[in-house]
Structure formats: C-alpha cells, structure tokens
Amino acid sequence: MFAIQSKTVEQSKVSIGNLMQPEHANPPGNIHGGEIMKLMDNAAAIVALRHTRTNVATKRVDQLVFHHPVHVGDFVICNAQLTFVGKSSMEVLVTVLVDNITKDQPTKVALTAFFTLVALDGNGMPADAPPLAIITEEERVLFEAGRQRYLSYKQQRLR
After folding, report:
1. DSSP state, 4?
2. Helix (H), strand (E) at residue 147
3. How far apart (Å, rounded) are the C-alpha atoms in residues 107 and 125?
4. How confident is the prediction for the chain on average, in pLDDT?
C-alpha cells in the first residue's frame, strides 16, 4: 500500500462565473436562491474533484447565508477552496461575489456557505481523499474551524 500524496489548497482552488439571465429569476428580477446554490455546488464539486481526481458527492451544505441580493444582469463569481479534509470527506468554503457590471462599484459578497463532499470509489463507496497540506496561517485557522465542525457533525451522527 502506498501513501497518498498531500495537496495544497492552491492546487484545487477555483473561481467560476455566470451572468444572471431572466430564466434564473422571479418576475421582479431577483435571482432564485436555488440558482445560486447550484452554481455554488458546482464550484465546490470542482474543488473536490481537483483534489481527489475521483468521483465525489455532496453530503451537506452548512451556514448558507444570503448577504446581498442578486439581480438579472449581475455577474456572479463563485470562489471556492478547501478548508478541511478528513479521511474521505472534504469541506469547501464557497463565497459568491456579485458584480453589477453596469455600474462602476466594487463587488459585494452575496452568499457564503460550507459544502461537505465525499470522495467515492468506482463502486460509489467512500474513498480516501489526499490529505490537505496547510501552508498559510489563514489556511490553518480555516482548517481548525473545519475540523471542529467535522467533529461536531460526527458527534451528532453518533447520538
């Protein structure tokens, strides 16, 4: 048996964007939260896939917070990065920025959430994920907070 090589946060980090269209919105022009959540889930899955290079599945979404509305014509950017990796599970922080491209103003944080994904083998069973190599102090803080959430969820499952 060989040891799995650790990978850094930078190796799997991703930013994806999408221009919000009328089909993403309700009649007044506000984008449905589910449309943004779908983009967030895609970004989280890309991060997990890049980290594991195997199939992954979303297990949970936590602390989904809507900070700022998104409207038709806005450009949304999903920034996603690993915060914690366990044996087979991975926590990905997704931050959604909204850019009103018709105005010269800074982007705003629209949503944030933590997605937990699980690495899967060819039979759909949990597989080992590469360890996460922590490089920066910010990564260490995020990793420790993710580890605490992981342990808390684990305790909840045992009850």
Report:
1. P
2. helix 137-158
3. 40
4. 95
pLDDT (tens digit, 9 = 90+) per residue, 11-66?
999 999 999 999 999 999 899 999 999 999 999 999 999 999 999 999 999 999 99
Give the pLDDT band (50/70/90) at residue 1: very low
Tokens of 55: 């199939």
State how far the Cα of 35 lies from the Cα of 103, in Å rounded to an integer.
23
**DSSP H helical ranges for 28-133:** 33-52
Determine the longest span between alpha carbons in the chain, in angstroms.
58
Residue 21, phi then psi, degrees to nearest 5:
-110, 165
Query: Is the entire prediction scored with pTM above 0.70?
Result: yes
CB proximity list for 122: less than 8 A, separation 6 or greater: 55
Question: Distance (Å, rounded) from C-alpha 43 to C-alpha 34?
Answer: 14
| 44 CB-contact burial (10 Å; exposed 0-12 / middle 13-18 / buried 19+) | buried
- The CA–CA distances, whole Å, from 95 to 27, 41, 53, 126, 157 equal 26, 11, 23, 26, 27
Tokens matching residue 91: 């926590």
Distance CA 140, CA 132 (A): 10
The mean pLDDT of 77-97, rounded to a whole number, is 98
